[in-house]
Every structure is written in C-alpha cells, then in structure tokens.
C-alpha cells in the first residue's frame, strides 16, 4: 500500500474542481482519445520505432552526462556566431534578463511564440508587470489570454479544453475588430485572429522565443512547430531573445536527427513536424541583427544530481504521456498548475515540479501522488523515461521529508498508531473488536458512506462495506 498523500493536497482540491466541469472534461477526453489514436497509428507504421526510442534515450543520456562540456561548447559556438549568452539560475532571473533586454531596446511591445519554458519562468506576468505588451503568435495562447487563464490545459495545445463555440465567443467579445457574424469553422477563426494581429506582428522589433533544442557543436537553435508562429519571430524582428533550458542541448546534428524523428510521431502522431526552423547566431542580410540566448537552470542541476530523478531531464517536451494518463485526462492542466506545476502537467509535470521546486511545500509534495501508477506514461515515452519509477522514488522522498518534521503530520500519527496496535496480537484483537462495533454504528444498509477525520479519505469516492458482526478471526478460534 502506498503512503497517504500529504495534507493539504492542493492537487486533490483542484482536481475535484476540474471534475465538476463536465463540459471541459468531455472536450479534453475527446481530444486525448484522438491524440492516442493518431500516435498509435504513427508509431505502428515505423518498423524501427523501439530501436529509435533506445537511440533517443542514448542521445539524451550522453548529452546529460557531459552537460557541463556541452554547455561550454554551446556558449562558445553561439558567441562565435555573433550571439550573446546569458546564464539564469532561476526562472525569475531569466524573466528579469528578458525584460532588461526589451527595455534596453527601447520597446514596450514584443512578439512571443508559445513555448513551455516561457511559461515556466512566468514571462507573461513578468512582462505585464513591467508594462510590456506581448503579442501572441499562437492561437491557443491568445485564447487563454482572452479568457484570463494563467495556465494551459496542455503544454503543447494550450486551449485544447475549449471547443470551437467557446473560442468563437471569446474572439467576438474580447478581440477588437472581430465581426459578430464570424463563423465557427477553425479556418475562419484563425483568419480572424490573423487579420487582427498581423499588423502588430509585422511592426514588432523584438521577439521572444523558446527553442526546443540547441546543437552544441555549431551553436544552432532548433524550433519544430505546427503553425509557423515561431518562424515569424525569426524573420521580422531586429532583436531575437531565446530562452532555453540547459537540459535541451544535444551534442551534434546526428543526435538532433534522432530526436527530430521521435518528436512529431510522439507529440501529434505526425511523420514529421510541419515547420522546423534552425538558426545560428546572426547574419548580416537575413533575420534578426541581434540574438540573445538565455540559458536557464531553474532546478535542473539539482535534478541532475539525483541518480533516479535525473532521467526526467531526457524529456523532449512531446507530451506523449498526457493523453494516456487517466488522471490528466480527467483533470487537465489546471489541477497540476494549482499544485505548483506551472506549464508542465500530466505525468512529466508530476515528476518535474517536485524535483525543481522541492517537496517541502504541501502543493509540490502532492504531485507525485497524482498518478495511478498504471505505467502507460513510461510505455509511450519516446526517450524511455521510467516515469512510474521516478514517481515512486519521489513519494519516498515526500514521506522521508515529513518524517523529519518536528511535529509529525496527522496521517503519520495515524499510521504509527495502527502499526503499534497491529504489532501485538492482543492489541490487534482489542482494536478489531472496538473497530467493528464502531464501524457498524456508522453503517447504513450494509455500507459506510462516510468515515470521520483522516479515515474519510477512503470514503471520498466510494462506499466501504460494513464489517461482519463476528469477524472470521474470532469464528475460526471458536471452531
């Protein structure tokens, strides 16, 4: 039996709220089912898929085991190509660097392509507090912004929990210039957004982007995407600011080739990414005149020091583990965000956040328990991260941390009391007799619908059968 989750569990509270929204649940469940079918079809037609997964794991492990060398090589290559490298220990520091660069350019508006790493550092709110407007190149991010939502339902498909009718209402009501007679066809919705944002995109002088990978040997940054919004950031602005997690470095182009074969099939069930943009430093006649690369740690080096947990750093942000997770499918990204998960939700968020932020807080400590441990996430991961194994490892860390508290938590007191009672036959039988009498007082029609106190966790989602008047243990003794 796994230990009880720490109380209060912010994930559990947020999950209950998400479960109450049946419309969103239906939208998300339908979308996840479609993603599962597409991914299964795409991987089935690749005869060497399992071999490719093993190669992807080897590529990512090789990069992580020599990460210090790879980062130094990357910094030198970017600098030689005319770029400027900045190092950020935390998300707040990375956001401050971006804001300082925007202010140094004398601008009050930037264009911003969707990327999990930008959500990780809280860039949207940081820009807003600094008085800098962000023009979104992604329709999903724009929908979230118009709806006033801080966190995406899915870190690659931010507004997947909303249907076309909802998006239509948001655009008509909150995006200036959108006609009321606009239809709900996806192409019409996209055209309406394009018409309203094109002028701002074309006049922007600074762009902020989150590349997916960096090739250390050449200093090349890489962005695979589905809508081409990131490519706008690479062509129009004069200054390009790139934020990259230090874990997303690959040593060579041959290594990148492996990852780019895995990513589209795992992420969206596609044979290849519709757009793959690459850029190396600055060029005199093409693209931005200035390029800044912000290398973000934000807990990654601490994760690298954990022999079990470090495997999560292999993640290529494909989100393949989300559609197969029964917990995520029913709760969406908001529940993970409420527990401190930020942009990364689903199984990978449940192993990433507790390692980068620690398990001292009740919210972060609840995330490793946001799983049934069915193992589906590990089965589909294209770089073979043993997510269930890491979750169990983190649960152990949570329990160990709570054991060291000066005042033990209530559930630990309960478990210690039960251990004391069950370690002696007479104490156990005395507890059993009293427990049976007490439980039968709570029973109605042979079922216990609600237990008091901490025991109530057992009856939150199901009834407990009432115990028999004469337990088997005592009947056996009398025979």
TrEMBL record:
Q: What is the protein's given name?
A: Lactate utilization protein
GO biological-process terms attached to the record: lactate metabolic process
Q: Which residues form the 4Fe-4S ferredoxin-type domain?
A: 312-385
Pfam families assigned: Fer4_8, LUD_dom
KW Translocase (keyword) present: no
Look up keyword Metal-binding and say if it applies.
yes
Q: Which UniProt keywords apply?
A: 4Fe-4S, Electron transport, Iron, Iron-sulfur, Metal-binding, Repeat, Transport
Q: Which residues form the LUD domain?
A: 72-285
Example of a GO MF term: metal ion binding
């Amino acid at each position: 039996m796994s230990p009880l989750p720490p109380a209060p569990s912010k994930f559990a509270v947020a999950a209950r709220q998400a479960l109450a929204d049946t419309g969103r649940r239906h939208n998300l469940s339908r979308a996840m089912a479609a993603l599962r079918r597409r991914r299964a079809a795409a991987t089935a037609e690749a005869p060497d898929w399992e071999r490719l997964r093993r190669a992807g794991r080897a590529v990512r492990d090789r990069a992580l085991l020599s990460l210090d060398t790879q980062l130094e090589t990357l910094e030198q290559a970017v600098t030689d190509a005319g770029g400027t490298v900045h190092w950020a220990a935390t998300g707040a520091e990375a956001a401050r660097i971006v804001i300082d660069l925007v202010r140094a350019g004398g601008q009050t508006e930037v264009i911003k392509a969707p990327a999990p790493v930008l959500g990780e550092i809280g860039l949207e709110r940081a820009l807003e507090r600094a008085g800098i407007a962000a023009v979104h190149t992604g329709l999903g991010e724009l929908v979230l912004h118009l709806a006033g939502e801080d966190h995406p339902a899915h870190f690659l498909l931010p507004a997947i929990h909303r249907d076309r009718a909802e998006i239509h209402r948001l655009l008509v009501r909150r995006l200036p210039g959108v006609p009321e007679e606009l239809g709900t066809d996806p192409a019409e919705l996209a055209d309406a957004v394009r018409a309203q944002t094109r002028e701002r995109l074309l006049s922007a002088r600074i762009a902020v982007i989150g590349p997916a990978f960096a090739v250390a040997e050449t200093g090349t940054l890489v962005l695979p995407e589905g809508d081409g919004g990131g490519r706008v950031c690479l062509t129009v602005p004069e200054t390009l600011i790139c934020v990259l997690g230090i874990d997303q470095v690959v040593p060579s182009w041959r290594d990148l080739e492996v990852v780019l074969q895995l990513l589209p099939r795992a992420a969206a069930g596609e044979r290849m990414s519709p757009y793959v943009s690459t850029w190396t430093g600055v060029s005199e006649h093409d693209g931005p005149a200035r390029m800044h690369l912000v290398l973000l740690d934000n807990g990654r080096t601490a994760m690298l020091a954990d022999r079990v947990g470090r495997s999560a750093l292999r993640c290529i942000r494909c989100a393949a583990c989300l559609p197969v997770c029964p917990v995520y499918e029913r709760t969406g990204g908001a529940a993970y965000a409420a527990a401190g998960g930020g942009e990364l939700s689903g199984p990978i968020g449940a192993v990433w956040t507790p390692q980068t932020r620690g398990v001292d807080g009740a919210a972060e400590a609840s995330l490793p328990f946001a799983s049934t441990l069915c193992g589906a996430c590990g089965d589909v991961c294209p770089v073979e991260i043993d997510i269930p194994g890491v979750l169990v490892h983190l649960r152990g860390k949570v329990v160990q941390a709570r054991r060291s508290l000066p005042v033990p938590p209530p559930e630990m007191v309960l478990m210690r009391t039960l251990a004391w009672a069950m370690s002696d036959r007479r104490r156990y039988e005395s507890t059993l007799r009293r427990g049976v009498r007490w439980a039968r007082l709570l029973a109605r029609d042979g079922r216990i619908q609600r237990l008091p106190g901490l025991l109530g966790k057992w009856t939150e989602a199901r009834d407990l059968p009432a115990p028999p008047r004469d337990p088997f243990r005592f009947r056996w003794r009398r025979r």
